[in-house]
């Protein structure tokens, strides 16, 4: 399995200086019946960063 190395979501708990620290990620469709671009996906591993 590939390791995710880049995270551009600054609000995510797993983002450490734009590096993903999650052991793995789960990506799902964001409601489209058929995903054709990355715009139709969502990271299910996202966890809001605590202040």
Descriptive overview:
- The chain has 51 residues and is mainly β.
- The protein has one domain (1-51).
- Helices cover 0% and strands 20% of the residues.
- It contains no helices and 4 strands.
- A two-stranded antiparallel sheet has the order 1-2. A two-stranded antiparallel ribbon has the order 3-4.
- It is globular.
- The mean pLDDT is 88.
Question: Could you give a short description of this structure?
Answer:
This protein has 51 residues and is mainly β. 0% of the residues lie in helices and 20% in strands. The protein has one domain (1-51).
Could you give the order of the helices and strands?
A: EEEE
Tell how many strands the DSSP assignment holds: 4
How many structurally independent domains?
1
Quick one: biggest sheet? 2 strands, antiparallel
**Overall radius of gyration:** 12 Å
Number of helices: 0
Question: What global shape is seen?
Answer: globular
How much helix is in the residues? under 10%
Strand order of the largest sheet: 1-2
| Average of per-residue pLDDT values | 88
What proportion of the residues form beta strands (DSSP E)? 15-25%
Termini gap? 32 Å
